[in-house]
Every structure is written in structure tokens, then in C-alpha cells.
Amino acid sequence: MVAAQCYDTAMTDQEGASRSQRTPARRLTPYDVQVRKGTAEPLVLVTAYDFPTARLAEAAGVDAILVGDTLGHVVLGHLTTIPVTLEAMVHHLQAVRRGARRTLVIGDMPFLTFRTGIKDAVRHAGRLMQEGNAQAVKLEGGRPVAATIGALVEAGIPVMGHIGLTPQSYYQLGGNRIQGRTPTAARALLDDALALEEAGCFSIVLEGLPTEVAAAITERVGVPTIGIAAGPDCDGQVQVLHDLLGFTAGRRTKRHARRYVHLDALIEQALGAYAADVRSRKFPGVAESFPADEQTLAGLADWEAPGADTGEAAPPGSGT
Asked: Does 219 participate in catalysis according to the annotation?
């Protein structure tokens, strides 16, 4: 019997051990995040949108993964997050949960899914939890959405808030602009944060704020703040995975993001090398091919096309 030939390459023992050392022993819950308020070690969050990136994020030991509606930018190629639908969020959440089995996964509520009434918001958030398998949802806005957040929490849905630069208000804000630059605006953001805490948020994203404003909010609220473009004094940080990896397909990396690798260049180089190898017939080679056994080769050598050299008429439509 010929041994089965497999397409897959197994993970090495060293790779498996490395992953097991970094992967959390159990999944963090929203409660675990909430009680990390004020601890010395900041929370580490990153976005992910599919199985492989979620698996790598979990292997790296991040505390939580946000399946953000930023997928509209970095995966779907839209200018804003506004075109992202609830169905798209459910789809990507499902993929991420398959890749991150022991990491807290939070799903963004996309544009208008929580602004058309509390009943709609509860139903839509419920879909992210039941169909997408999220452990919590995130929604944008301050005091105007506090009652909605309260209803979600009452329904048993953990909520992460999001104030400051809220990308779903891109056109209303006039683009991605830093918020809280005046005393009035800064105080309004503090009021928003306190209202979200009172409504039951287990944490609050602070996006696009001056460092000192974010620090003041962090000091005054009793739940963890998660910063993005908000300075180093928040209780945690979240970044868009593609920005960290330089995997932007030419999209400009934001000033607040730090590139740790330049995947754009590496991927382009790798694909160029692949194309060159195919065109020069260097790929596939022996290492990537699957030889036939002697019995199969003998059978091929003895094979004759139907009707060949037998005087039989060729079947209709054979072209001969």
C-alpha cells in the first residue's frame, strides 16, 4: 500500500511549545478586563478580522481581540467604516472565534445598528453574540447612547464604550480629527465617559484625544480606558493589526501607529518571486510535487486511448 501524501506541513514542536507558552490558560472575560483598572500592566488589544490573524494574535498573548468595523478600511477597501453591515461583522466574528479560542473577542456594532431604537440595538447586539460568538460588543458615542448601553447590559450583553474620535461620525466630524482640544470639548468627553461608566460599560475606548485629556478621563473613571491615538496613560492600548504589521496595501499609516514589520514589501517581494519561478518553470519542483508509484506508471504505460489502433470507430464528437 502506498503511504498517503498530504498537502499540509505540520507545526514543529518548537512552534507548538512557543504558542502554548504565550496563549492564555483561560479566556479573559469582560469582568477580568474591568478589574484590571489601575493595575501596573496595561491591557493589550489588537484588531483581527479572520482566522489566521486571530490565531496569531492569540499565540502572541494579547489580552483581547477587537473585530472592528475598521475592516471596512483595511479589508474591504472603503474610505470609511460606514458601509460595513451587521452581516459582515457576524461573518468576520465567526472566523476570528475559530482562530482565537482562548482570547476575549469583542465585536463592533456597525453604523446605525444601535441608533434606531433600543429594541433594534438589543436585537443586533444579540446577533453578534449568538451568531458571531462575540463575548462583548463595542459601540460608539457618549451620553446620547447611554440609555441604549444600559438596556444592552440589562439584557446580559457586556458593552465596551467608545468616545472621542468616533469613525462612524466621519462626515459629521469632518474627517478623522483629534477631539477634545478645547476646555468645553474636554469636559464634555469626561461627562460622556462618566455616563458610559454609569450605564454599565466594562471599559471605554478613548480615540483621538490629547494625551492629557485622556489621562484626566482615565484618572476619573472607574473602568479601564483603552487608548488609540490617546497617549500612554490609558489603562490599555488597541491598534489596528494591519497598521502594526505594515500590511496596508499603500494606505497611509496613521501617526499614532507604530510599524513593527513591513509586510507590504515582504509580500510583494514573495509574490514576485513566486511569479518568476512559475514563468521559468522552477516551481513546482521535486519538493513540491507528488510522484506516482511504479504500479501507476506501469498502468499508464500500457494504457491506450479508446479506439486507438484497434480499427474501432472513434466516438461522435471526438474531433477525429
From this structure: no
